[in-house]
Amino acid sequence: NGCLYFSGGENDQTYDPDKTVAKYNDFFYIDLKELNENNNKIMIRELPNLNEPRTWHSMIYVPKKYIFIVGGSNTKAVELYNMETKELTKDSELNENRSECSLCLVNNTYLYAFYGFLIHQEYNKTIERCNLLREKREWEIVDYKNTIENTFKISFFGISYFNSNEILLIGGDDDGNGKHYDYIYKIGENGEGDEIKEFNCNLIDSNNVFRDKSFMLIDY
């Protein structure tokens, strides 16, 4: 709706994986239309604080009025922001901690949370999903078939839902092996289970860059 939302974050003056950083519970937005109207001067508009401070969490817009704030460092909590009422409420709980998980909305019904990481390069190896249409939302671990033979990157990848039952997983952290792979996650139909398989995309040949963010414009 022409706005850019920010939440949480951390204050870490010196990077130390063992150090407990100060987390923020700030939540605010800027109206991008003001960039043209006010000669690139914008006003930061504060929203209700998050119910708990967060860092390394994920956010996703659910048309046409919701923002889900999911997981993060040392938390399984999921919050829901209603853009019409400007209310921020506790919504549900993941089954596992997930920092920087990749979120994907499917058919405006299911919200998927893919992988993520914990600490000290320990990666989360599961996928969760939630039926957003239920009044009391609960997350479930997805049972899926993995046909991939090579090392499976499971953090910092881009994601795009591009047809009725397939999700593209693009790039990501190669865990130091100097290679990049892309995948298709296929949602099972007619009783079939979900499946993930390799997808030959070849967007980048360099071993010094991994494609950790991408997006695809789609209809509601």
Assembly state of the chains shown: single chain
- Shape call: globular
Biggest sheet character: 5 strands, mixed
If strands are numbered along the chain, what order do they take across the biggest sheet? 14-18-17-16-15
The chain-level structural class is: mainly beta
Distance between the termini: 13 Å
Please estimate the helix content: under 10%
Proportion of beta-strand residues:
35-45%
What series of H and E elements makes up the topology?
EEEEHEEEEEEEEEEEEEE
Total of helices: 1
Mean residue pLDDT? 83
Total number of beta strands: 18
Cα radius of gyration in angstroms: 18 Å
Low-confidence stretches: none
Plain-language structure description:
This protein is an all-beta fold. Helix content is 2%, strand content 37%. The strands form five sheets. Strands 14-18-17-16-15 form a five-stranded mixed β-sheet, with no helix packed on it. Strands 6-7-8-9 form a four-stranded antiparallel β-sheet, with no helix packed on it. A four-stranded antiparallel β-sheet has the order 10-11-12-13, with no helix packed on it. A hairpin with a 7-residue loop joins strand 12 (127-131) and strand 13. It is globular. The relative contact order is 0.11.
List the helices and strands and how they pair.
Blueprint: E1 3-7, E2 10-11, E3 22-23, E4 27-31, H1 34-37, E5 45-46, E6 58-62, E7 66-70, E8 77-82, E9 87-93, E10 102-106, E11 110-114, E12 127-131, E13 139-141, E14 144-146, E15 158-163, E16 166-170, E17 182-186, E18 194-199
Parallel strand pairs: 14-18
Antiparallel strand pairs: 1-4, 2-3, 4-5, 6-7, 7-8, 8-9, 10-11, 11-12, 12-13, 15-16, 16-17, 17-18
